[in-house]
Amino acid sequence: MTAVILQHAVVVTFHIVESVMSAVLDEDKRSIAELIANQKAGYSLEQRFYTDPDIYELEIERIINRHWILAGHVSQLPEPGDFKVLNVARESAIIVRAKSGALKGFANVCRHRGSMICQESDGHADKFVCPYHGWTYDIDGELFAARSMPEDFDMAAHSLNPVSVDVIHGLIFVCFTDTPLSLEGAKRDLSEPMAMFDFENLKVAAQKTYKIPANWKLSIENYQECYHCATAHPEYARMHTLMLDSEKRERVQAGMKAKMEACGVTDLYIDHIDTAARPGEIGYGYSRTALFDKYKTGSKDGGPVAPLLGDFTDYDGGASDFSLGAFSFLLAYSDHVVAYVFTPVDHNNSNCEIYWLVRGNADEGKDYNVSDLTWLWDVTMQADKEIIVNNSKGIHSKYYRPGPFSGMERAERTYVEWILQELQRPDPEKKPGPGA
Ligand code: FES
Ligand SMILES: [Fe+2]
Fold first, then answer.
1. How far is the CA of 146 from the centre of ligand 1 (A)?
2. DSSP characters for 16-74?
3. Nearest to 283 by CA among 322, 320, 319
4. CA of 107 to the centre of ligand 1 (A)
5. Do residues 395 and 218 touch, judged by C-beta distance below 8 A?
6. CA separation for the pair 176, 164 (Å, rounded)
7. In this predicted model, which residue has the larger pLDDT, 173 or 236?
8. Helix or strand holding residue 159 (H, E)
9. In a mutational test of the pocket of ligand 1, which residue from 112, 118, 127, 161 has the highest number of ligand atoms less than 8 Å from its CB?
10. What is the pTM of this model?
């Protein structure tokens, strides 16, 4: 009898706890929905978007695990067994050149008891051995050795879980969902500008990780605006014209356009950043902007740093911006490409991975040297890191209030509005939006 009463009490208590928890969860969701609804248009985001772990959880579900992220260039994995690892928030993917020669992606999570398998960031392997109990997978992700398991243990049912991998003109993209957004529009519309730089045949001449102790949105928002360039980046401001007023910028832009055709460069402008009109696809864009007159490329003195890319027969004095999804951005000069990938680590930390790409047949030491090639965007990123961290410190203060965007922060405004839209979008895989 006592046991029955106790059992009943446990069940009742469980239901009370369950309903309180779901009320708390509903309240959290509602308050996030209210926060989004009350966000003032044209102003920076409310403090909680940068500090609240619950909002970060929602971002993981609605944005971070749903969107494609640049993981490198196909030239980095030429042979079967060549691999690299991409870490994003709580996920980790092994991207490997499989036996067939195709690129495959696997969750870096052992099918025994879940240990992370691959600790290196890249390398060559003929098998992946879990460091915990030694389960061993081949380069196609299939389990082929597991000690002391029962006789009826089904090895074939314990392959590594696949992660979505695709390639856009030589650039490897990874996505942590089985139902990823379509890349077809980006592949089609960006094929012409990407062919001009011969993206398929570039190679990575240098790669560097910048650890930024700030929320991922602050890192990307900073990349989206050049209002800060005149104050924070004297090196960049000497050569790039993005911070000029529109009249002056039009003048230098006209000078570049006059040179473009003679240099084999097509004048293109693509703006499919806004995904609201194209649900189910990633956002993407392309534009070319003039450098100041004496600058041929993004280098210390404006002089060449590597052989001309693709179709270029000479320097037209421009630099192209590519935007590919929410986390990956490219800057293409006439002789090299700089790729920026921003990845969340946790709600207070993010990384920026920079790749410097040159012509595939360029030789280091003869055609380029890494210190000249990387100088501009290394000094610029160091300065960016400092201002992003300062921004983060101020945002954590009790005195922080959202402030108004300037006319030079339009792209950042579009980006934060897109974040708010995505946070309200129902999750196709499970839950409805906040407050729903
Ligand atoms: S967790 Fe990988 S072998 Fe046990
Ligand atoms: Fe900057």
1. 9
2. HHHHHHHHHHHHHHHHHHHHHHHPPTTBPPPTHHHH-HHHHHHHIIIIITTS-EEEEEG
3. 322
4. 14
5. yes
6. 6
7. 173
8. none
9. 112
10. 0.89
Question: Do 199 and 381 touch, CB atoms closer than 8 A?
Answer: no
Would you say 216 and 344 are in contact if contact means Cβ atoms under 8 Å apart?
yes
Q: Give me the DSSP letters along 87-145.
A: EETTEEEEEEE-TTS-EEEEESB-TTT--B---SSEEE-S-EE-TTT--EE-TTS-EEE
**Whole-number pLDDT of residue 16:** 47
Question: What does DSSP assign to residue 201?
Answer: G
Burial of 304 from C-beta contacts in 10 A (0-12 / 13-18 / 19+) = middle
Whether 131 lines ligand 1, by a CB cut-off of 6 Å, is no
Helix, strand, coil % (nearest 5) of the chain?
Answer: 35, 25, 40
In short, whether 113's Cβ falls inside 6 Å of ligand 1 is yes
Question: Residue 426 gets which letter from DSSP?
Answer: P
The CA–CA distances, whole Å, from 26 to 22, 30, 39, 324, 434 equal 6, 6, 20, 34, 8
pLDDT digits (tens, 9 = 90+) for 187-233: 999 999 999 999 999 999 999 999 999 999 999 999 999 899 888 88
Q: Which two tokens stand for residue 48?
A: 């909680």
Closest-CA residue, ligand 1 atom 1, reads 113
Q: Which domains does the chain have, with CATH numbers?
A: 69-165 (2.102.10.10), 182-424 (3.90.380.10)
Sheet holding 128-129, edge to edge: 128-129, 136-137, 143-145
Residue 248, phi-psi category: left (phi > 0), alpha (psi -120 to 50), beta (remainder): alpha
User: What is the DSSP-derived secondary structure letter of residue 187?
Assistant: H
Are the beta carbons of 372 and 240 closer than 8 angstroms? no
Residue 298 CA to residue 295 CA, distance in Å, equals: 7
Tell me the longest C-alpha to C-alpha distance in the chain: 94
Tell me the per-residue pLDDT of 346-394, one tens digit each, with 9 for 90 and over: 999 999 999 999 999 999 999 999 999 999 999 999 999 999 999 999 9
Cβ of 300 closer than 6 Å to ligand 1, yes or no, is no
Q: Name the one residue in this structure whose structure tokens are 């009320």.
A: 23
For 305, which DSSP code? -
For residue 100 and ligand 1, the question of a CB distance below 6 A is answered with no
